[in-house]
Specification:
The protein is of the alpha/beta class and about 350 residues long. The chain has 14 helices and ten strands. A hairpin with a 2-residue loop joins β9 and β10. α3 crosses α8 and α6 packs across α8.
Amino acid sequence: MSGDHNEDLPRHTADWPVGEPVGTNGDGQQKDGHHTAEHAGEHAEYGGHPAEPGQHLAGDSGRDPGALAQPAGIDEQALAAQGVDLQVAEIVAPEREIGVKVGDNLVEVRNLTVKFGGLMALDNVTFDIKRGEILGLIGPNGAGKTTCFNAMTGVYKPSSGKVLLEGQSIGGQKQHKITRMGLARTFQNIRLFGEMTALENVVVGLDARHKTSVGRALLRLPTHVREEKAAIERGMALLDFVGIAEHAHFLSRHLPYGHQRRLEIARALATDPKVLCLDEPAAGFNPAEKEELMTLIRTIRSDGYTVLLIEHDMKLVMGVTDRIVVLEFGKKIADGEPREIREDPRVISAYLGEPEDDVA
């Protein structure tokens, strides 16, 4: 982002405090102990005035929000039931065209194998991810879940097999190109830019979809200014969508742990993914935070996204997924609906072991 910001860049939230840095009480004093007054003022430069009722948001071309075309897969009824602002949901919803219908295979993993020397970390794994579903990828520690994630997203180069996104192979592509193609992920360990604000972290994700050249950005030509303005608007909407809009101008390292997790999800959504891959997003959460995360994941799906979820918490996985793939020692041992997986003797054995009599 350029250091020369437009002072009239809009904020999304209609009740945003006018002329006050987010996180202060109006006289520059800190409200919750996470952020200094100096930083709050420094990062309030995106401020401007709150949107007035009926005011068009950046990127809507002056159209009535109610008349915006609905991206395929959005469930307005579910979003309304979850208490989501439908105007925010429309801004956050996927913008790119997806060539497969809801319910058809969006990602196809075929005979995926990863070897580290003599260690077989992933052994001939095959499964599909259907557009519009929440797919869980589970297994005991060392089962190969994160290795599978890494092989799909370009962190590891598979020894054999392939990954297809809308029928197109993404094998051999670099990580940033795979992200541009539509496969975005979060990590087990939080990887935010600590010296950037929450909003700036999300805008970094949005940059994956920008078309402005470096030269146009340096000269601040009108196309770049429009793109930057739309990025701020969408970034604010994403923070609102994941429930941390009030922390937009806090440095990310000052955010509570749970908010940092939500910020990572917002940044991944900012890349406009065809598939959002979440690697243990509930790690370190208490039960209440896990319930809130389940609601957020359902909301993301209701807004038109497809989700791949790695998670150890079985209650969370069983409660939020449509289908589950189970790995053990690098091999797929089960694939089905949560009810089927819960009752599958192979899955029970993988997690709980077998009685000694059965082993004998």
